[in-house]
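Good morning,

Both structures are done.
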Amino acid sequence: MDTKLTLKLDKYVIEKAKEYASSHKRSLSRLIESYLKSLIDKEESDLKNDIKISPFVKSMSSGVRIPVDFDYKKEYGDYLSEKYK
């Protein structure tokens, strides 16, 4: 449920925030809502001491599972040895 909120801010800040929101094709209301939500989420996350992974980083996931005991230094060394035989 959306509720109206009135804020009192510096005129320059409002103008620049509107320009920023417009350039990112978002409304100023949604921009402020996202910011406030990120503060709340961060505070809740800090309370839980959990590591929060951003949506961008999650989108980079390849789905490949790497074993816990994987020795990347050994594997890379083997790769280089084979490459430069």
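Second structure follows.
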Amino acid sequence: MVRSKFATHVHILSLMGKFPEEWLTSDFIAGSLNSNAALVRKELSELRNAGLVESKEGKNGGCRLARPLKDIRLSDIFAVVKDRHIFGFSPNDPNPHCPVGRNINKALDTMFTRLDESVTGELSKTTLADFIAKLL
């Protein structure tokens, strides 16, 4: 779900922002999230693929931010977790013979696109540094 994944990713990156020079382990991050390390490793993989974190293997390994806090916008994080649209379509294909069913997804797609652009625009106004400053 976008909402919980976004919150999880912001939490992980905020924690890394608090300790920018340290390589944080998945166990350490899981402790902050009150979650398990396996879930954290999955989320870290997504963040690494997006270029937001870097990792190092081995005894002193872990993950840290790949870019400065001021260069990461909340919209960058949102892009990692966002599926096609913030809101999803019905899991059932509408009846194409129904006057509503044949047009509903096109109308929803237009509305969802505007909503996505609005949310992304709002999130792009805040850097991770701005966000973390409000936490501490």
